[in-house]
Write a structure and sequence with these properties.
Length: 164
């Protein structure tokens, strides 16, 4: 069984931050590292709205959300690729939010991604480890990363959304 790991960035004040790379659409390559915060209590992956045109595409759909002091509508977007510790995720659904503060260049990795793997976070060893294979539940889904949650925690199926 293969696995991948990402070294946690212990220079950041947040507990579980690591570097990942987003696919730069214009250059057709992985761009500069971005900080990714693993939030085990977050339903959705969150990205700042200004990063989406460079790394993905915005859909017409919006949902209500609350994150980082921001409460309001968030656009649903699709991030082309995220490379984490050598493991590439494609077409990850995220919420694009105009949040403020010093973490505006961070991505919050939510349960729509992390629940697809068996993973562990080790502060002592300073790494995040995950099995590269998808979980049994994720294997049953046609598109494991192509969904998000509404504000009640219910899954919204991406296949039912238009705008792609």
């Amino acid at each position: 069984m293969s696995s991948f790991s990402a070294k946690l960035n212990n220079k950041r004040p947040c507990r579980y931050v690591f570097e990942a790379r987003l696919w730069d659409i214009k250059r057709a390559q992985f761009g500069a590292p971005v900080n990714v915060l693993v939030d085990t209590g977050a339903f959705n992956t969150i990205i700042h709205k200004f990063l989406v045109p460079k790394y993905g595409k915005m859909l017409k759909q919006t949902i209500l959300t609350s994150v980082g002091g921001y409460k309001g509508e968030a656009n649903i977007c699709i991030l082309d690729k995220i490379n984490i510790g050598g493991h590439t995720l494609e077409n990850v659904v995220a919420l694009a939010v105009p949040f403020e503060g010093e973490l505006h260049d961070h991505i919050l990795l939510g349960a729509n991604v992390t629940n697809n793997w068996e993973f562990s976070l080790s502060r002592k060893r300073n790494i995040m480890e995950a099995k590269e294979e998808l979980s049994d539940e994720a294997m049953k889904r046609a598109f494991p990363y192509k969904f998000c949650y509404n504000n009640k925690g219910q899954v919204m199926a991406f296949q039912e959304m238009d705008g792609e």
